[in-house]
Design brief:
Elements: E1 2-10, H1 14-25, E2 31-34, E3 50-51, H2 58-78, E4 89-93, H3 96-104, H4 106-112, E5 117-119, H5 121-127, E6 138-142, E7 146-147, H6 150-163, E8 167-169, E9 176-179, E10 184-188, E11 191-200, H7 206-211, E12 220-229, H8 235-238, E13 244-247, E14 252-257, E15 260-265, H9 291-304, H10 306-311, E16 313-323, E17 330-333, E18 340-344, H11 349-366, H12 387-399
Parallel strand pairs: 1-2, 1-11, 2-8, 4-13, 11-18
Antiparallel strand pairs: 3-7, 4-6, 5-6, 9-10, 10-11, 12-15, 12-16, 13-14, 14-15, 17-18
Helix pairs in contact: 1-6, 1-11, 2-6, 2-11
This protein binds flavin-adenine dinucleotide.
Length: about 400
């Protein structure tokens, strides 16, 4: 059976569902999202859900802010909770260089209208009484960001898009994408779908998916750990949720999860996963954790947050995360492939997915982007980038995730 739609979106994670939602909001409802298994079954289901507003580039910060707005909007339109916790964040300044760089960002936040303040150690101690502030130079405080439930947000987006007329087919992998007589043909086990436009939002699966078209997408999955503690002594008694702490010294992010902590670790020597291709039988599963690699980072987390060590580790999740050489997504049209769009390569897909989809949808519907954002355009990479160079750049970018530029 062949069916015709205006736009097919491939991939039902937070990014694909955000794209479907924003296209529908802008009036494009002759759309179909194809998902290989269930919504969120890629990286989205195991993400920590952090949505920070801290960033060194105002254009990317706008994507962060617009993402939270998108999820809250989808929540109110669908009735599906996204569980936004606006506990705020502290980006620690462990050097004078970091502190000065954070101060220089103040006008940027004034410009985009987001609360932001550089605070000293005393104020850090008030905001997060369990943090050892010894040696800290200060912190950038973004009081209105926090975390969402990634699964809740994805379903809210999907439901809100469906209410507007968009369609979703679960358990329907796209098995081939090729050019037809007019537009594109996407094959599935249920038949073919003809479409004017295709949006590929299939994260680390996108590389193999588009290799047949001669495209060499610069993205690969890495292993990424998050550690969840048991009950933290003294946390419940505070009577408020403490802000997320981003510590360039560990480097890590640690937020409150019920009455414990949830800590994401950026390893200095990260490990790639499935670089030769994603196993066909890979489903909603986690990878074996590697405590040896984590240990030096966790020692630092416990020095900064002694209560973390007292609580004891309850769970360690190791999941694949998609990375590009500069850590930014591939968002926009594919040059030389009229009608083929990318929304893939997201390593901070919860933080930036909703806003990125809004940006892409405006571009698709209006024929041009609302504003220039070359940091994310797929055309910034050459199709000739070798695998070795790509992996090396990803390794450096991941390990330098919390390094302050300049
Ligand atoms: C441990 C961990 C913690 C994280 N914490 C955070 C965090 O706090 N904040 C944050 O912003 N990010 C976080 N991330 C990253 C975040 O999970 C990803 O950036 C985000 O989920 C990517 O969303 P996506 O929609 O691009 O991809 P995915 O969620 O992977 O979705 C891609 C979808 O495409 C589908 N698909 C693949 N092939 C096909 C096909 N052929 N046909 C149809 N469908 C297909 C897949 O089944 C999948 O559902 C974390 C990642 C990890 C591993």
């Amino acid at each position: 059976m062949t069916e015709k739609v205006q736009t097919v979106v491939i991939g039902g994670g937070i990014v694909g569902c955000s794209v479907l939602y924003w296209l529908a909001k802008l009036g494009w409802t002759d759309t179909l999202l194809l998902e290989r298994r269930e919504l969120t079954s890629g990286s989205t289901w195991h993400a920590a859900g952090n949505v920070t507003y801290f960033g060194h580039y105002s254009s990317i910060t706008k994507l962060y802010v617009n993402s939270v707005r998108t999820y809250l909007q989808a929540e109110s339109e669908s009735g599906q909770p996204v569980s936004f916790h606006p506990a705020g964040s502290l980006r620690l300044a462990t050097t004078e260089h970091e502190l000065e760089a954070y101060k220089r960002l103040e006008p940027l936040y004034d410009e985009i209208g987001v609360d932001y303040a550089v605070v000293g150690p005393d104020r850090i101690g008030e905001l997060h009484p369990l943090l050892d502030v010894t040696g800290l130079h200060g912190a950038a405080h973004t009081p209105t960001d926090g975390h969402v439930d990634p699964t809740g947000a994805t379903h809210a987006l999907a439901k809100a898009a469906q209410k507007l007329g968009a369609r979703i087919k679960r358990h329907t992998p796209a098995t081939d994408i090729r050019r037809g007589k007019s537009g594109w043909v996407v094959s599935t086990a249920d038949g073919e779908v003809e479409a004017d436009k295709v949006v590929v939002a299939s994260s680390f699966w996108a590389r193999e998916m588009l290799a047949g078209l001669g495209l060499n997408l610069p993205l690969y999955p890495l292993e990424h750990h998050e550690v969840i503690t048991g009950e933290v002594p003294g946390l419940a008694e505070l009577g408020f949720e403490v802000p997320t702490v981003r510590d360039p010294w560990a480097p890590s992010n640690t937020r409150q999860e019920r009455n414990g902590f949830l800590c994401g670790v950026y390893e200095s020597n990260p490990k790639f996963w499935a670089v030769d291709g994603i196993p066909a039988d890979f489903i909603e599963e986690l990878l074996p954790p590697d405590m040896e690699r984590l240990e030096p980072h966790l020692v630092r987390v416990m020095e900064r947050l002694p209560a973390f060590g007292e609580a004891g580790i309850k769970t360690v999740n190791n999941g694949p995360i998609c990375y590009t050489p500069d850590g930014c997504p591939l968002l926009g049209p594919v040059e030389g492939q009229e009608g083929l769009w990318l929304a893939t390569g997201f390593s901070i897909g919860i933080g930036t997915g909703g806003g990125s989809a809004e940006y892409l949808a405006h571009w698709m519907v209006n024929g041009e982007p609302e504003y220039d954002l070359p940091l994310v355009y797929p055309s910034r990479f050459s199709n000739d980038l070798t695998r070795e160079r790509c992996l090396e750049l990803i390794r450096q970018t991941y390990a330098a995730g919390y390094v302050t530029p300049g």
